[in-house]
Amino acid sequence: MMNTAVAALLGLLIGGGVLLVVAGFRTPPDAASHPRRSRIPRTWRGPAATRRAIQLGLALAAGAAAAAWTGLPMLAVIVPAAAFGLPVLLSTPANRDAELLEALDRWVRNLAALLPTGRSITDAIRVSARQAAEPLGAQLRLLVARLDDRWTIEQALTAMADALDSADADAILAAVMLAAERGGTGATATVNALADTVQDRLRALREIEAERAKPRIVVRQVTIFTVAALGLALIFGGSFFAPFASLPGQALLTALVVAYLGSLLFLRRMALPRPRQRILRRAT
User: Fold this and answer.
1) What CA–CA distance (Å, rounded) separates 143 from 160?
2) Helix residue spans in the chain (DSSP H)
């Protein structure tokens, strides 16, 4: 009984550590500089709260059932940790850079279409803001409001760059500043060249993302096959896990699971785009 209690305690500690690592990995890197109004994670607020609570209940029930079926108390922690950790680690991470660049590409091409009609950069920005969609629409409307409040084009675009917090956005908005300074045919030529450059950058991002997806798909398939095989072994071949019934065996089983989840976390971090240095910031 003592060995079982110690094993359960160790499992709780290790499983909790795994969940904290996964939760920390999901936290946006700019959370410290842009705190939210609530400290409760978004997945536990609103309509998603019920769904996440049901998932947690099912995961805990599955862990308890696996522990009772096999006599391995560590599974009461390992199964819920894997149930929550694997979907996060194997899912396709959101590519904010590509989404933002797609919105910027549509905006720049809209500007390029408006300038030959004789509008200035500021007038073209006002017209384009009416048609802009997220994730750029709110920032463009704020940009227009600042221009109406007699901000200079440079001040307004720099503030927008700070809000977007993207190296790609910095380069594009800096080029728009340059086009505003040139005016006339120079502005049209600058924006047209900018539109072509954004297209090339967007095409490169899509190719990179397609290459990153290939190993992710392979790892996902291997993990699903492994989990299915282990689940069938638990149901139909319980004697296979008999050596793990001892305290050292359960510690070894937990270490193997943690090592596998850690390797998935490492691979996911490798597949994420590296942050690039921004070039457009307001003077403080």
Assistant:
1) 7
2) 2-26, 48-70, 75-90, 96-114, 121-131, 137-148, 153-164, 167-182, 184-236, 247-271
pLDDT category of residue 20 using cuts at 50, 70 and 90: very low
Q: Which two tokens stand for residue 53?
A: 């609570």
Domains and CATH numbers, the chain: 2-91+237-269 (no CATH), 96-205 (1.20.81)
Alpha-carbon span 2 to 151, nearest angstrom: 71
Alpha carbon distance 187, 108 (integer Å): 12
DSSP 177-246: HHHHHH-HHHHHHHHHHHHHHHHHHHHHHHHHHHHHHHHHHHHHHHHHHHHHHHHHHHHH-GGGGGGGGS
CB of 8 closer than 8 Å to CB of 76: yes
Residue type at position 15? G
Query: Structure pTM?
Result: 0.65
Angle of helix 247-271 versus helix 2-26 axis, rounded to 10: 10
Q: How far apart are CA 159 and CA 274, in angstroms?
A: 23
Which among 150, 109, 149 has a CA at the least distance from the CA of 128?
Answer: 109
Q: What is the pLDDT of residues 213-254, one digit of tens each?
A: 888 888 889 888 988 888 788 777 767 777 877 888 888 888
